[in-house]
Please model this.
Amino acid sequence: MEKTFVMIKPDGVQRGLIGEIITVLERAGLKPLAMKLIRPSRELAEKHYPDTHDWYTSVGRKTIDGYAALGKDAETEFGTDSPTEIGKTVKSWLIDFLSSGDVLAMVWEGNAAVKNVRRLVGNTLPILADPGSIRGRFSIDSPDAANKERRPVSNLVHATSDIEDAVNEIKLWFPEFELGR
Model:
């Protein structure tokens, strides 16, 4: 059985979707192992997001591509065409958002838990998420609205992307959790 980290972000908590989201995960056959409602400090939020050149560049390129798809020039909006610098700005938006309110941090277990949770939560862009996924059912935010307001896309849930990240995120959010259980 595999373990994964899932977080209901401030927008999901504020909208009262905790029960709905947990129900989706449970009905899929996943088992909750740990949960805590917490308002992340800026320090914890900073540690949650990677601090690597590759991550900043990847996020920056996605942002540049997203702006281009909307017919907008990222350089005009950000004052730079550097994917790395744009990625750093986006990370600051993410940190501001994550530390803006309560989140529900959770550890879940199940068969291929990482991939199955990713499938259940849907595409990170709610407008592209399958209608049956958590993001597809409960969010209608889009990159154009988020970019206009200079904030991250509100997509309700964070789901770990791979097993290595799951181990690291569980250790970060639940230092007391015993991974061997």
Remarks:
- The beta strands are 2-8, 31-38, 103-110, 157-159.
- The CA atoms of residues 124 and 169 lie 18 Å apart.
- The mean pLDDT is 94.
- Residues 43-100 form one domain.
